[in-house]
Amino acid sequence: MASSLRLKAALLSCCFITASLNAITGNIPEMAKTFFDYPLYVIELISTIPSLFQMAAILISGQVGRRLGLKGNILLGAALCGISGTLPVWIQSIPLILLSRAVFGFGVGLIASSMLSLIVYFFDGQSRSTMIGMQGSIGGLGSFTTAFLSGRLLTFGWNVSFATYYIDFLVLLIVAFFVPRVERQNAPQGKKKEVSFKTPAHLSGFLLICLLMFFSTMFATVFIIKAATLITQSGYGTSEDGSAIIMLISLGSLCSGALYGKMYARMKDLSLVLFYLICAAAFFMGGLIQNLYAMLFSAFLLGFGLIAFTPFLQEKIHTRFPQHGQIATRMILISQSLGSFLTPYAGTLLEKLTKNLHHQFFLTGSAFLLLAVIAVFLHRKEKKALSLLS
After folding, report:
1. Reduced 3-state DSSP string for the chain
2. pLDDT, mean of residues 338-357
3. Is CATH 2.120.10.10 correct for 2-389?
4. Does residue 128 register a pLDDT over 70?
5. The pTM of the whole model exceeds 0.85
6. Domain ranges of the chain
């Protein structure tokens, strides 16, 4: 029992790294002032470019894992995150900072894919669902902690706030001592030969879950990268308040992760509709009410909905398509990473529709309402299919 608890704690400690991607998002307004000769979307890439290289790492994690094993993947990822994450403390060059953030994202990708594979390997049934849900809760705690540290360090300069990532070296040590070494080819999903999709409907169901993850993550990330700019441009908040917004998102994630299991047990697939409605409410409140406290509360709601729909879709693709274990893990994580990376470009599209950030928030909230309608439709379709089978 003690060793099991240590294993769970060690695996979940990785969430302090994977959830820290947005810890320095509150820096964007201050960095934009320093690097005023760069367009805003370039500065925003500091927050989202890790997602592109996270996707690249997920794609090649299998090849790396065959040499290093799943534990080796995590150790390499943690080392890369620790080194590249803290590099901007010492450099003040946008190209080099973007490069360091790219390496950071690559490290996160190695950790995320291997951590999910290890959870699937070591746990099953309710234990697996609990661990997948706990990723959100512990990730919320990790995101809150790193955002808090980043916000406090921001008072000494935007570059000093990157010192937050020294915590990654602590995670490296925890994994090194408490996670057993497991070769990827020995994992249960590695034993099974990946099979083709049975029917076009089977394939379309798989792709639909990936698309939901892609658009859900993209829309949610609009809030993450735009909220600090919104409050500073509107005059009711500062850059330090931008870090507080990330902290409230993290706090919402922490609460959501703790309640996810009970919510899903009670509402089943309809819980996805609720999660989308919560995200929509966050955008409407943040966009329509020009008040810092309203924005902080909307950040909490956004974090709650974000961390709820993420484990829902991760678990959904594994339960509906268990024979596609490796493909399912990679595709759902790639969809999530790609959605996050493309957010600044989605923001550019929103700017073509309206320059007003409040209106952009309203449009994104409306997009979440559309996702909620799609989730209702899918629930009814799946319920009808199950009734026909019975």
Report:
1. CHHHHHHHHHHHHCHHHHCCCCCCHHHHHHHHHHCCCCCHHHHHHHHHHHHHHHHHHHHHHHHHHHHHHHHHHHHHHHHHHHHHHHHHHCCCCHHHHHHHHHHHHHHHHHHHHHHHHHHHHHCCHHHHHHHHHHHHHHHHHHHHHHHHHHHHHHCCCCCHHHHHHHHHHHHHHHHHHHCCCCCHHHCHHHHCCCCCCCCHHHHHHHHHHHHHHHHHHHHHHHHHHHHHHHHHHHCCCCHHHHHHHHHHHHHHHHHHHHHHHHHHHHHCCHHHHHHHHHHHHHHHHHHHCCCHHHHHHHHHHHHHHHHHHHHHHHHHHHHHCHHHHHHHHHHHHHHHHHHHHCHHHHHHHHHHHCCCHHHHHHHHHHHHHHHHHHHHHHHHHHHHHHHHHC
2. 86
3. no
4. yes
5. no
6. 2-389
